[in-house]
Amino acid sequence: MSNPNAAVLEQVLSYRTAEEMEVSLEEEQEASTRFANNAITQNVAKRDVKVTVKAVYGQRVGRASVTELSETALRACVARAEAIARATEPDPEYLPLPGPQEYPEISSHDERVAAATPDERAITIREAIAAAEGAGLQAAGSFATNAYRMVLANSSGLYHEQQLTDAQFVMTAMADDSSGWARTSGYRWDQLDPQTAARSAVEKALAARDPRDVEPGAYTVILEPAAVADFFGFLGYTMDAKAADEGRSAFTGKEGRRIGRETVTLSTQPIHPEVPTLRTADDGLPRPATTWIENGVLNTLSYSRFWAQKTGKPFTGRPSNLVMAGGEASLEDLIAGVERGLLVTRFWYIRFVDPMKLLLTGMTRDGLYWIEDGQVRHGLRNVRFNESPLRCLERIEALGHPARAGRYGGAYVPPLRIEGFQFSSGTSF
């Protein structure tokens, strides 16, 4: 351990009296420039450092955190963690901390993003606002550039350090009766295309003017990547193997069975070039690349260290990103194959209706359109859906070319054409 961050962790470990100890240091540098009503309204920046200590006596585990790196504060944090551990009931699922590990090489940091300035973000935003003003629209949104460092060490000799960056430009263009939304994101500066995103938001708002009502019912839909990421992201949140084995999950009894069409393949790829993630999973173990669904078959669920050992299954950890295989079709190609249906830009306020069926509800937002005879005809007023990602896996008719999507780029997914997507009611906006 030769760098300053490593030295802090070594110092903390030297204070331990516990049988085992894990220490993590997280540094976050967050900056965001926000705009509304065609003007920059706020620039904020913050930098945080946090040290978290996990102390272990047998199977008694205690945790404590501190945001000050003085010797006094770090000693007190260790003492708190150890006191909590001694007072805590044993955790029957606790496993001893792993020793040194080897981690895959991942490109996840871009100094250009980490060093971005308020002036650079402001210049980009002013250009986007000009596109909205030229169309007679109001623009709102943000341009955020973030940098993150995680350092992890334990008393068994494990040590790991990783840096990640993320940049995200989001814009909503608004008219009196319509809105359009677009986002561009990346961990590298050259992955961003804010001006194309701004033009897309403007075009969507203009195309959605004078919206009409649509009756509730089942429709063929085209989901753009943002909608795909938010909707199918609930698969990743709910794929816990223990819950399924104990009969508490929509995935109970489904492992090894076909749950989608043959075109559906869903995986986690920590070293994916577009959406890299943390290399570590449970207790600092290397995060494995995992294919959850392959050609429509549920290969595996999410196995923690404990449940993998108990069941004899390979350790997977939780999904850290979602990568869905797609095709070469463009969004326009997918639209051209729809006789009558809806184009959905994105969803919002998605919530569970029935977790045992993975039934969700939510609303469309910032760009909903009627498709007829392969063309977008006009805008629609927003509608509420009641639908399950599991059910939709069986109704995917076509897949487009994947793109980075999801908040802070947690997914790389294609636009999808899905038949029989259930909408339950209109909304008041």
Question: What does it look like?
Answer:
The chain has 429 residues and is of the alpha+beta class. The chain is built from 10 helices and 19 strands.
List the helices and strands and how they pair.
Elements: H1 4-14, E1 20-36, E2 39-57, E3 60-66, H2 71-87, H3 111-114, H4 118-134, E4 138-154, E5 159-174, E6 179-186, H5 194-207, E7 217-223, H6 225-237, H7 241-245, E8 266-268, E9 290-294, E10 297-298, H8 305-311, E11 322-324, H9 331-336, E12 340-354, E13 359-372, E14 375-379, E15 383-387, H10 389-393, E16 396-399, E17 403-405, E18 411-413, E19 416-426
Parallel strand pairs: 7-12, 11-18
Antiparallel strand pairs: 1-2, 1-4, 2-3, 4-5, 5-6, 7-19, 8-9, 8-11, 9-10, 12-13, 13-14, 13-15, 15-19, 16-19, 17-18
Task: Write a compact overview of the structure shown.
With 429 residues, the protein is an alpha+beta fold. Helix content is 23%, strand content 38%.
The gross shape turns out to be globular
**Backbone CA Rg:** 24 Å
Q: What's the N-to-C terminus distance?
A: 57 Å
Q: What structural class is derived from the secondary structure elements?
A: alpha+beta
Helix content bin? 10-25%
Would you report the number of β strands? 19
Largest sheet: 6 strands, antiparallel
Q: Which regions are unreliable across 5 or more consecutive residues at pLDDT < 50?
A: none
H/E element string?
Answer: HEEEHHHEEEHEHHEEEHEHEEEEHEEEE
Spatial order of the strands in the main sheet?
3-2-1-4-5-6
The whole-number mean of residue pLDDT values reads 96
